[in-house]
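Reopening this ticket.

The earlier resolution said the output was attached, but the attachment link was broken on my side. Pasting everything inline this time so it's all in one place.
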Amino acid sequence: MSNYVILTKSAHKDTKVILDRGEAYGDKVKVALTFPQEFRNIQSCYPIFFVKDGETGQFYPAAIFGFEENENLFLTDQGWDATYIPMMIRRHPFLIGFQPGPNGEKAEDNPVVSIDMDNPRVNSEKGEALFTEEGNQTPYLEGSIAGLETIHAGHEHNRVFLEALLANDLLEPFTLEITLNDGSNNQLLGYYTINEDKIRDLDGDTLSRLSKEGYLQAIYMQIASFARIRTLIDKKNALLPKSQ
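Inline output:
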């Protein structure tokens, strides 16, 4: 369970956040929401696919870390084995929340930074401090808030990006079955990807519009991320028992 409260200088002057990576800190996850503005970094490490929310029917892009639930093949005893960690992973234990303003503003017009006090990273003994002795925000907290602002903007970017993909009928279901070195099968199921044939068939005006809106680069980055499926397979095979 989470216990988000509004972050304040007075209430959290002694609060610290552990930056280590591990299962104990909630990093053992199969997927993470991602955003077009970080696709270039994501595709250098992870496959990117689209997930359809079973309740809302909405699509969102996700970085894939494993084949099974609660499997993160990038997580080792030494930490997170990748050159880039997605923003939605790094944001913890912070979140942008909303509350009505003092002058009657709507909650959605008044974003505030919240912190999950039940997150295992949060304590008062070790880790990165949030405030200096003088009560100023530390560089760590400033960077975390900047990341939250990027994520906040990213949700809207995702919405219009997916609208463009759906308007041009560019998404298709994707299923992949992989046979590992020990003969066992693993699958990637329930994901969607961009149809490369339909990209090639788009007319010049549509391609130009997608490019001007910044979507064409994100499309090609998603397609390029297919190469990272090999990374997942190699990491999964490396976990198998050595043959005698």
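Reporter confirms the inline version is readable. The radius of gyration is 20 Å. The CA atoms of residues 80 and 186 lie 22 Å apart.
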